C-alpha cells in the first residue's frame, strides 16, 4: 500500500504531506513493514523546504500521542507497564514512557520470543520477557498494543479493572487487536472519530461506542475518567506529522 497524508496547520504555519509505504511481510524481514517520508512545504508559495525521515517522525509522534493519552487516562497509581509487540513502535513507546512515567516493572511479549528478548537486551532499563500475552497483561496498569495482529491478542478477561490500554496496531477495518469484551466494557477514546469509524476493525467490528476524541479531553470538553478501564485507539493523524516535522525543521534551522 502507498498512503498519502497531506495536512495544513495554520497555528504552526506548516504545510506537509507524508508518503508511507506498507508491505505486509510474510516472513521476518530486515526491512520495516512501514516506511515513510515527510515533505515540508512553505505555505505561502508551495516551495519544498525540507525532506524528513518520516519513519522516525511516525515512531516518535505516535508514541508521544499515546503518552498524552496515558497521562490523562491512566490510573492514579500505575506501577506495571506491559508492551505487546517488539517492533519499531515498541521501542519508541518504551523510550518516551520510561522517560515520562515511573513504572516499577516493565513487561514485554511478542509472538516470536527472540524479538522480545532482543528488545529486552537493547533498551536501557530492566524488562521482563513474558512467554504469553496473558502473563504479560495480568495485573498491568498500562498496556500498549503495537502488533501486526489481524485477530485479537488482548482479551478483556485478562485486563485489570481500571487499567489503561493504548491500542496502536490493527489499522485496517478487518483487523483486530482487542476482543469485544475488552472494548465494550471500557471507555473508548480515539484520535479521530471519522478515522476510527472507517479504519479501525477494533471499533467497527465490535460496534463499540466512542466516548470522546483525545483532543476533547485535552481541551476539557470531555472528562478523562481515569478511574475506569480506558482504551485509546490510535490510528494517527496527518496533522501530528505536520507539527512534528515543523518542530524538527525549526530546531534544525535554529542550529540546534
From TrEMBL:
EC number: 1.5.1.1, 1.5.1.25
GO biological process per UniProt: thyroid hormone metabolic process
Catalytic activity of the protein: (R)-lanthionine ketimine + NADPH + 2 H(+) = (3R,5R)-1,4-thiomorpholine-3,5-dicarboxylate + NADP(+); Delta(2)-thiazoline-2-carboxylate + NADPH + 2 H(+) = L-thiazolidine-2-carboxylate + NADP(+); (3R)-1,4-thiomorpholine-3-carboxylate + NADP(+) = 3,4-dehydrothiomorpholine-3-carboxylate + NADPH + 2 H(+); L-proline + NAD(+) = 1-pyrroline-2-carboxylate + NADH + H(+)
Gene Ontology CC: cytoplasm
SUPFAM superfamilies noted in UniProt: NAD(P)-binding Rossmann-fold domains
Pfam families in alphabetical order: OCD_Mu_crystall (PF02423)
An example Gene Ontology molecular-function term: thyroid hormone binding
Homology family: Belongs to the ornithine cyclodeaminase/mu-crystallin family.
Quaternary assembly: Homodimer. Binds the thyroid hormone triiodothyronine (T3); T3 binding inhibits enzymatic activity.
Protein name: Ketimine reductase mu-crystallin
